[in-house]
Amino acid sequence: MNSLNTNIILRFIVLILAQVLVFNHINFMGQINPYPYILFVLLYPVKNNRTLFLLLSFIFGLFVDLFSNSGGVHAAACVTIAYIRPGLLKFCFGMLYEHQSIKFNQTDLTNRMLYFSVLTVCHHLILFSLEIFNVSNVIMILQKTLFSSIFTILLCFLFTVLFSSKQR
């Protein structure tokens, strides 16, 4: 097994454990819940098999659902952002994506911020829409999406900076 697969497995386990043991217990003002586990989907290597990536994203979200007792909302949100990820990568990184040579810790900060932000907001909007599942609570869905997205994006950036293997 090469170091890339080991790194993916390690990231899978650490992010699930961090989410279910630490971040699921954070709830600021009833609106802000951080979900930095989506870093698994955000940072998954571009060159790998897309079908395998979608399957791993589903399994990853399913594990979070099992430990959180949330009935499949995380799995649905993870698979959705994994599915739309290639189009967003092409939009945010252009030729780097075309040549399959994206290294997230070496990309432009604004492009990375746009990429993280769009996928995080999509994930959270799907997650909270399925969790609340009531049209009369659209304002609450949007509030939770906005506030949790901001906090999640900040945590994801913090983690990518702290745990980046190579600096510019």
Tell me what you see in this structure.
The longest helix has 25 residues. It is globular and about 45 Å long. The chain is 69% helix and 0% strand. The relative contact order is 0.13. The protein has one domain. Helix 6 runs antiparallel to helix 7. The mean pLDDT is 87. It is built from seven helices and no strands. The protein is an all-alpha fold.
Q: How far is the first residue's CA from the last residue's CA? A: 28 Å
Mean pLDDT: 87
Q: What is the overall shape?
A: globular
Compressed to H and E, one letter per element, the order equals HHHHHHH
Q: What is the number of beta strands?
A: 0
* Main sheet: strands, sense, barrel: none
Strand content: under 5%
Domain count, please report it.
1
**Percent helix:** 55-70%
What does the radius of gyration come to? Answer: 16 Å
Poorly predicted ranges: none
Structural class: mainly alpha
Number of helices: 7
In short:
This protein has 168 residues and is mainly alpha-helical. It has helices spanning 3-21, 39-42, 50-68, 73-93, 95-98, 109-132, 138-162.
